[in-house]
Amino acid sequence: MPIKKEISKLLNSLKTPNKIIPYLKKKIRKKLYLTEEKFLEDFFNKKEKKYIIQIGGNDGIQNDPLRKYFVKKNNYKAIIFEPLNYYFECLVKLYEGREDIKIEKTGISNFNGIKELYFIKPAVADQMNGDGPMNNWAHGQGSFDKKIIEFYIENNKFRGEKYKKNIKFYKESIESEEIKIIKLSDIYIPDNMETLLVIDVQGFELEVIESINFNNAPKYIFYEDDLKDNPKAEKIKLILKKNNYKYIGGEHDLIYKKM
Q1: Residue 22: predicted pLDDT
Q2: Which own/partner pairs from 251-254 qualify as long-range (CB within 8 Å, at least 24 positions apart)?
Q3: Domains and CATH numbers, the chain
């Protein structure tokens, strides 16, 4: 469709002018940049050997963008960091016998030490789908900040009346474990492979990225961008830009490539 006709069609479909710019930005981004799914498909189809570092493995299934690629062995090796005992055991069982996938019971942040990590008791998380969607979302809630988990519990009120009645109980079911923390700079990243870092740590992506040794850094960084306009989100982008990373795609998860 000619550009003038396309713009005209867009303008006619919008009720108020102030919606035009965000709408066009979103449309342009979709056309110019890779989606998360397309990027991962292209990455795993590469003939070169690959090395993947996943921070925040959870159970390896729930909302995990890498699961479909990790089902079968291929020309890659991976290391998954999951510090919570319950989910660490889930991963160990899931990838039992897989010498190509290593599971580490460790957290990653911008310091070395011990820190308290909050999460929803797994038996309670099983009950928190409410009226749907049935995506076991509550199993993905692990954070150094208890208030972040409480926020997401409140944010899921759309799951129905029964869910809303149990919100107090859900908040009371938040537990914590003391976990070991290391920096990403403590991990050697091979320079003779296509390397990918995937981060999903409930609002603490900045702290993981701050721990990178950019002299030994992955080629691609793929991280969850739940914070959006939060100062942390902007700081991440500044750090990546300073270290010669360029945005190449993604909306919910952002993807950067080292240039």
Answers
A1: 58
A2: 251/29, 251/35, 251/36, 251/225, 252/36, 252/224, 252/225, 252/226, 253/36, 253/65, 253/222, 253/223, 253/224, 253/225, 254/222, 254/223, 254/225
A3: 1-32 (no CATH), 36-111+184-258 (3.40.50.150), 115-179 (no CATH)
